Amino acid sequence: MTKKEKIIIAAILIALGAAFRLLPHLWNFAPIAGAALFAGAYLGRRYAIVVPVAAMLLGDLFLGFYEWPLLITVYGCFILTGLIGTLIKKKSAANVVLASLAGSFLFFLATNWAVWQFSPWYAKTFEGLMASYAAALPFFRNTLLGDLFYAGVFFGAYEAVKVLAAKAKLAFLPVKNS
């Protein structure tokens, strides 16, 4: 893939990520983790970081920023999810699902730990931490579903386009007359 193609794909992922955060949607059912995973797997380490951060920043310009410790944790989780994408060498459905699940669990564990640690809502005890995780379970379901859905869409669409492009290229090859 050329640098120009990578930049175009990254711009599309950033635009989609930001736009879908601004449109009405279920809590935590958003394309950022799927875009980060895709960027890591297909575009490389630099894009694994730039794509989710740029999409989040663009969305947060409209939605508003929030407490810095939580913001840094959320952004950090998406960066790590992008870096998980760089570990996907064979782009199989199983590998994409496993990487997506890893990103979802990372996000759940880290962000709810940060809510427990940095907010006044929960006692700073083990019971408080468990209460934070328990309260977040409905959001976790949406995170899992959203991450799997968008990773499937991004990876699936790209692979489908590659197959269609290869077929179109073959259709235009000259036929040799014997």
UniProtKB/TrEMBL annotation:
It comes from the Bacteria. Keywords: Membrane, Transmembrane, Transmembrane helix. InterPro entries: DUF6580. The chain crosses the membrane at residues 7-23, 72-88, 95-115. The keyword Transmembrane helix applies. The keyword Transmembrane helix applies. This is ECF transporter S component. It comes from Candidatus Buchananbacteria bacterium RIFCSPLOWO2_02_FULL_46_11b.
